[in-house]
Amino acid sequence: MKAVLLGCWLVTLTSASFAHRLDEYLQATRIAVATDRIDLTFELTPGVAVAGHVLGVIDSDRDGRVSDDEGSAYARRFLKDLNIGLDGKAVAPNVTAVSIPVMQEMRSGTGVIRIRAACKVVSLNAGKHHLSLTNNHLPAISVYLVNALRSKDPAIEIGKQTRDELQKDYRLEFRVRE
Amino acid sequence: MQATSFRNTTLSLLVVCATFGVLDSVPLAAASVGQTRQVIAAANAFLATLDDAQRDKVSFAFDDAAQRKRWSNLPVGMAERRGLRLGDLKQNQRDAVLKLLGTVLSKMGYEKVVGIMESDEVLRKENSRGTPVFGRDEFFISFMGKPSASEPWMIQFGGHHLALNITIAGERGILTPSLIAVQPAKFVLDGKTVRPMGRETDMALELVNALSEEQRKQAILGSQMRDLVLGPGHDGETIQPEGLKTSTFNEKQTKLLLELVAEWSGIIHDQAAAVKLAEIKANLADTWFAWSGPLEAGKGYFRVQGPTVIIEYAPQKLGGDVTMHIHSMFRDPTNDYGKKFTTK
Fold first, then answer.
1. Which of A12, A15, A18 to mutate to test the interface with B (most CBs of B within 10 A)?
2. Chain A within 8 Å of B225 (Cβ-Cβ)?
3. Closest Cα in chain A to B160
């Protein structure tokens, strides 16, 4: 029986290797900075080989489906695994939207979990600022992409972005115009 | 039999195009209106081969937002496409689709698209289990709006690793956003090695190697880029540009950059391609080039970003050899889906 299951798994992985993410959990982050808030968008795509692991974290009652409460709880847990700082002080993001794909999509490596979050900040003074982000969510299986969006707030001038090799640690410099 | 026939047709069309130069023989001065008329004629010729049910299936409203974003890098079984599937068409209908593609695309663009479809056929043959479904039958065509010289309309053509979103607005042709990808990136067809994205792969390496040490330090991002940042689902987003400003480029570097960019901007027919490349060239002072990963052909991610263009090239780990699986995107943050010319 075990051999049959292993065979099925290998066939699935072989087919999947032609098409979509396989053995890594891609966590893509986009950051939009304004003078009074920071909006964060996360797209989390578990590959076929790690989807079970991720689903194990999300589907806490193990009933084979993800309820709205479980989706929200996962989003909160995800955000807890992030360290976000603004000018050296910790800021806490709040979930504003969560979208969890159906189980089948997740298991096939094509499902994308989408989380939106926002950090309200005291209106930023003119001058230089920096934002830091460290992503500690499921690091053993994850790869990361982090990018600042061009700001729609004309007062904001986006500056240098610095990342470590894995993009787990990220720093964004920006300036608020006079 | 049908598949073989289709391949023979595509190859024959390639030969005809190359021999008679039918795709690049129209003088630029006459081409502005003439090319749109030819595209409309080819679209209508295809539509005339369809029965009512097919015509209904292939046609969408120009402002159908759901259909507009119904494209993906994923195989068709994993991401829905609508329109008409090539595998469901009769031979004369498939020929008409190819004729339309041959008219709306440049010779280079047409060859690239056919190469991508043929690479998917290689996947089909390698993937004996049959899921996900690959192959040259699994590409879809649809129209948004009606072929017209005065009203905007769109041709969508794509499937796994290919999404062409072509907006025709009067004399203008807009190719953004389009996804151009391939796996395997190199294969043998009828005894010849085919690399549908070979030129851009080699040219990008040539460009990064042509940079001075100081320029290269600025261009190389120093972090892994595992995928496209602005792939499917990211319409309307513009990331902050990074890397090296191309205003620092010397003449040779600028020439290499424009040749590289033309591998995407030049997919559409020559007249529209010339307009797009001129626009990109005019904005070079505010354009950036970034690289990430090994300085080897096909192993590094790169991005060209200017006010009216974003090109991303991202080798993929899936499948083992990153040089054999490439994703790329061609976007214009100011004019995806021709919004500059179609928004009232």
1. A18
2. yes
3. A19
Specify whether B255 is located in the same domain as B321: yes
Smallest Cα–Cα separation from B273: which of B96, B71, B109, B131? B109
Check if B21 contacts A (Cβ < 8 Å): no
The reply to whether B149 and B186 lie within a common domain is yes
Please enumerate in sequence order all residues whose Cβ is within 8 A of that of B249, keeping only pairs 6 or more positions apart, or say none: B257, B284
Q: Which domain holds residue B218?
A: 196-342
Measure CA of the first residue to CA of the last residue in chain B; give whole Å: 48
Mean pLDDT across A63-77: 94
Chain A residue numbers with beta carbons less than 8 Å from the beta carbon of B74 are 19-20, 110
CA distance B134 to chain A (A): 9
Same domain, B125 and B10: yes
Sheet of strand A89-90: strand arrangement: A89-90, A82-86, A127-135, A169-176, A156-163
| pLDDT tens-digit series, residues A71-83 | 999 999 999 999 9
Q: Is B237 found in the same domain as B140?
A: no
The Cβ of residue B238 has, within 10 Å, a number of other Cβ atoms equal to 17
Q: How many angstroms separate the CA of residue B222 from the nearest CA in chain A?
A: 6
Separation CA B212–CA B218 (nearest Å): 10
How many other CB atoms sit within 10 Å of the CB of residue A14? 13
Cβ–Cβ gap B78/A20 under 8 Å: yes
Predicted complex ipTM: 0.86
Task: For B305-320, write each residue's pLDDT tens digit.
Answer: 999 999 999 999 877 8
pLDDT digits 0-9 by tens, A148-167: 999 989 999 999 999 999 99
Model confidence band, residue A4 (pLDDT cutoffs 50, 70, 90): very low
pLDDT in tens, B275-316: 999 999 999 999 999 999 999 999 999 999 999 999 999 999
Angle of helix B270-282 versus helix B251-265 axis, rounded to 10: 140
Closest Cα of chain A to B319: distance in Å? 5
Task: Dump pLDDT digits (tens) for A91-118.
Answer: 999 999 999 998 888 888 889 999 999 9
- Which of B193, B217, B243 is at the close of a domain? B193
Domain boundary residue, one of B193, B214, B232: B193
Q: Where are the domains of chain A?
A: 21-176
Express each pLDDT in A15-55 by its tens digit: 444 555 678 999 999 999 999 999 999 999 999 899 999 99
Domain co-membership, B12 together with B160: yes
Q: Are residues B15 and B139 in the same domain?
A: yes
**Same domain as B306, residue B227:** yes
Per-residue tokens: B223: 């972090």
Asked if A10 reaches chain B (Cβ–Cβ under 8 Å), the answer is: no
Q: Are residues B30 and B44 in the same domain?
A: yes
Number of domains chain B contains: 2
Stretch B215-230: mean pLDDT: 95
